[in-house]
Amino acid sequence: MPSILIVEDDITFALMLNTWLSKKGFNVKSISSTGDARQAIEKENYDLLISDLRLPDGSGIDLLKWIHEKNKELPVIVMTSYADIQSAVQAMKLGASDYIAKPLNPEDLLSKINETIKVEESRHSSKQDNSSSSFIEGQSQAARLLYEHVRLVAPTDMSVLITGASGTGKEQIARRIHELSNRKNAPFVAVDCGAIPKDLAASEFFGHVKGSFTGAIDNKTGAFVAAKGGTIFLDEIGNLTYEVQVQLLRALQERTIKPIGTNQEISIDVRLISATNENLREAIDKGEFREDLYHRINEFTIRIPDLKDRKEDLMLFANFFLDQANGELQKDIIGFDEETIHLFESYSWPGNLRQMKNAIKYATLLCQGRFITLKELPEELTSDSTKVQTPIHLKDENHERNLILKALEESGHNKSKAAILLGIDRKTLYNKMKIYQIEE
């Protein structure tokens, strides 16, 4: 029976939590101050600490610092109000496993408790890093729904199709599904279908033997064999040629693959997760994507919202990426000034999380003070033309070609900026330019 220590000075609320969690099968103890918490942690071992941030003799931050100084391996969930999110971010930086905003939803808290304990148990048994530190879920309604779907589908073996605009974090969601699945101790193998030359796609998926084609100087293990027992993630699956789609469908139906250059059939045991930023239904109507393959890869769909539709999560992600940039660049930037926060909240973020992460890393490198200001941000965020720019939606082919030419002209033929103006990623822009024979 997992043991939980609750630190909460609201006696009525603490009693409610104690009673409810006890009924859920936990061994619960409640105390009301940081001093009593220190004594309790010194005397007994707990599986989890749940602490309010504001306490009569200090704060949850003080308690976290003490746990860190004592090298206590005690996972912590902090409770805070929506108005005090910055403190929650600070708590995460000090090692808190998760946080939950008040007024809290009991089922959300129970989910976070079970997840934290599960991850901690996995960390001890496998001696691997706790992967929850590599991402945050967010607190918006869109984020809650997204991760509720992730947690529901993860324990199954259903094939998942993740859809969303470029830069929204589709691979991160795929990895999270894998980490919460029964296959978590087996490999996670990611394949970028948009980056594979079409004549090498079959080799990438199924492998080949030495000498089977020009350039095959060694045997190659394909992704489906490398992911044995685990998960294979096919990013931008809509970019596969029709021929490779046929081969992929056969592999999924028969659960066997045949490396190029051999007649040997190899059984495969993988869970398939795919992702796309395209409308595969439209591709089916155009005859560019097989409908039978679509149904095979799409037993469950997860849609990732754009960053601009997750306003409540904007600064959570910004602080998270700042923390990462500080670590990578050995900097100690505290946060963002008010003008920068206002810009972040009003900007459309056509490149989504990837754009935000890159922009903050860029600004962190340039920043000489304690707070990031507008002057350190990339020009794409601060120039009037892009700050108010609404991403262009591509329509028919003639219209699409003209929009690309216009974007290239407006961006001074800078392809990265042109892609942002169009609301697509740079790789997609290169592909479109090749299709329309636009030479630069």
What layout of secondary structure does this protein have?
Blueprint: E1 3-7, H1 11-23, E2 27-31, H2 34-43, E3 48-52, E4 54-55, E5 58-59, H3 60-69, E6 76-81, H4 85-93, E7 98-102, H5 106-126, H6 141-153, E8 160-163, H7 170-179, E9 188-192, H8 201-206, E10 207-208, E11 220-221, H9 223-226, E12 231-235, H10 242-254, E13 256-257, E14 266-267, E15 271-276, H11 280-285, H12 291-297, E16 300-303, H13 314-329, E17 335-336, H14 338-346, H15 352-366, E18 371-372, H16 379-382, H17 384-387, H18 397-410, H19 415-422, H20 426-435
Parallel strand pairs: 1-2, 1-3, 3-6, 6-7, 8-15, 8-16, 9-12, 12-15, 17-18
Antiparallel strand pairs: 4-5, 10-11, 13-14
Helix pairs in contact: 4-13, 13-15, 18-19, 19-20
* End-to-end Cα distance: 65 Å
CATH topology of the largest domain: Rossmann fold
Give the name of the CATH architecture of the largest domain: 3-Layer(aba) Sandwich
* Main sheet characteristics: 5 strands, parallel
What is the tally of beta strands? 18
Low-confidence stretches: 125-133, 384-395
Going across the major beta sheet, what is the strand order? Answer: 2-1-3-6-7
What is the residue-averaged pLDDT?
A: 84
In terms of structural class, how would the helical and strand content be classed?
alpha/beta
**What is the count of DSSP helices, taking H or I runs of 4+ residues?**
20
Radius of gyration: 25 Å
Using the alpha-carbon principal axes, give the shape: globular
Oligomerization status of the protein chains: single chain
Name of the CATH first level of the largest domain: Alpha Beta
As a percent range, the share of strand residues is 15-25%
Helix proportion range = 40-55%
